[in-house]
Amino acid sequence: MATIRSLSCTSEARNGSDWKLADWLEIRADLMPEPDPIAVRPSFDGRLLYSLRSCRAGGRDDSPICTRHRRLQEAARRVDLVDLEGEQDLVPETLTRISSERRVISWYGQARDEQTLHQLLRRFSRTEALLYRFEITCSSVEEAIITLQFLNRAKRPDVIAYAAGPVGVWTRVLAPRFGAPFVFGRLGEDSEDGAGSPTVFELAQDYGFPEFRAVSELFAIVGEPISGSLSPRLHNAAHLHAGTGRVFLSFPTSAFESLWTGLVSSQVFESMGLTLKGMTVASPNKQTALGFSRRATLLCRKCCASNLLVRQNETWRACTTEPYGIFRYTGRANVNLPRSKVAVIGCGGSGRVTAAALARAGAHVTLVNRSSDRGKWANRLLGLPFVPLKEFSPRGYSGIVNATPVGRYGEELPIELANLNPGSLVVDLVYSHSGTTPLATTAHALGHTVIEGRNVLLAQTMRQYGLMTGETMPESLVRGLLWLQINGNNASGRLDNDHPKAELCKRRAM
Q: Can you tell me the mean pLDDT for 392-399?
């Protein structure tokens, strides 16, 4: 079992409580005035790691080398561990004053291949240390695989390697699978250090740390941007609940073809004892992903979009779960779709599939889009009428579906809901971390029937989990993580708890 071990800390982050989830606390002295470990001790009883990251290693310390080494030596008298950069700090005077069991030898930079990392490890290993740490700068998700290949070949319990930034979060999650004894996270969203790296809260809430089971099957969400996606949290909660060797990762990319070549068709995961079993496909990859599957549902082919790829033996099948987010609740809300006049705003992959499914259910669907080019293409593809957004009025419609990203960050959708027929259906495919979206709030106030984004996400996630694993995702578990009512037919999806950390406490107590 792996543990969240080392975190980056700035003076602004010291008041947080997330660090209590960790065993080690890294103090980034290059980001703050010379820290006083005594001030930290009353709140944190783990081990303190002093780090003075240089500019050449992506930090801010630009002091002369003699000054730098003096600060490292002085820190050794006050903290448990000292981070030494392998390229410049392994000098006799410093090593004499810092014993081997208190050294963390680190390297930060770009590496062409795993062989480069092995050469560095051989060189650094001539100096004894508690841990050898490699933080690799990568430009893509698929490039980051070299960190895991390096760990898999090294097979050393004193080595940790991971890719920095958002493209490398998944390598941190999988590193313990290959023997790495530590997982590094940062302390909160506003920390200056480790930009793009996961927070301790995210590691615990989304990936189940400090508990970590042996992993053999991988699932992922692929898209850009996906930093705010709740999919890893929901899927991994179900995987942990089931006690399986599965983990759901995040692959932030808009270059689906490159990811497919680098991680899927290359069989690189299989060479390390892992199998990629399924991928939730997010924008802008929904059309591109369809081309890499040998089989696809009729709805996917008709709409030229897929939001789910499932591996069946050696064949990949393209599916879509878009309609489930709506149809699950329209029956409960007594919505009569046949002959209803519905406008679908947004002609991307989600909008096209949703429009086609509603039309198949008997609704009279109109496509609405800001870009006329995409709207006209969807019109030819689906045979449904199209109206440019600037010319659209909801007057006379009894249903509106927002299939655009607008509203995720509090933006107002540029339509006038007051013109909708009384008691209309309003569906928002977008969900907000801060509460209900402006569209849903306005629709509620006007008395319309509202299906909010969290409910859509609930239905789609459960369907995706079933298709990828052949098992049923526990609905009450997912509802709790989405802060939805546990009992009753809650079609509106009002939030019962606006503080995500409360759920962390509940889940850790399970």
A: 93
